[in-house]
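Reopening this ticket.

The earlier resolution said the output was attached, but the attachment link was broken on my side. Pasting everything inline this time so it's all in one place.
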Amino acid sequence: MAPLGTLILCSLASAVWSYPSGAPPEACDSMAPSTAARPMGHGGPPQTRPSEFDVAINVDANGWMPDTEYTISITKKNSSYDDIEGFLCQVRSSASDNTRHGSFVNLPKFYKNAPCNTALIGSATHTVALYNASASMTWRSPAASLPLPWPGSLTAYCTIVQHTSIYWVKVPSNSFQLNPSSIVTSPPPTDDAAKVTAGSAIVLALAVLHKTFL
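Inline output:
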């Protein structure tokens, strides 16, 4: 049996190198708990084997609509797998694009918005070690008032912690496209409008010529 002092030291190390209260700000871009500042942030490198969890979002085949709420869920692929201890979820255009789209709203107890720079509502994480078989959260898509171009294809990415040193980084959901019907373009001018526009142009041109030859 290991000496009591050794057990206490190991317990303290686990507390220092893991994040039971959620992802730290320095993990926001990489979504990895092990960073240059904390190379052993979660006790070791991420898993390279396939994730034991699925990430999904309930956007239908028609695509996402602006300013609409959707549910992002994390579930175990097999009930025999160990539970979720923690997570960090974001919605991006791609895994390499650090821009976070939309916002996480109405988060349940033990969840919070991760402090990711100025995008305080663009990431969701845990506040305690969860030990849950699944996790779900509400994501609101970007508002229609945003300047164009809107992001087209989006994907939910979640870093999922199963144990202190067992975690997967940027597990993707299915990609989902912008619903074409949400793109509003200016209608072409009617014949009457075109005539008015052409007439105004002619009047303006005549006025310029008249002023030139005075």
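Reporter confirms the inline version is readable. Confidence is low (pLDDT under 50) at residues 4-17, 193-213. The chain has one domain: 18-181.
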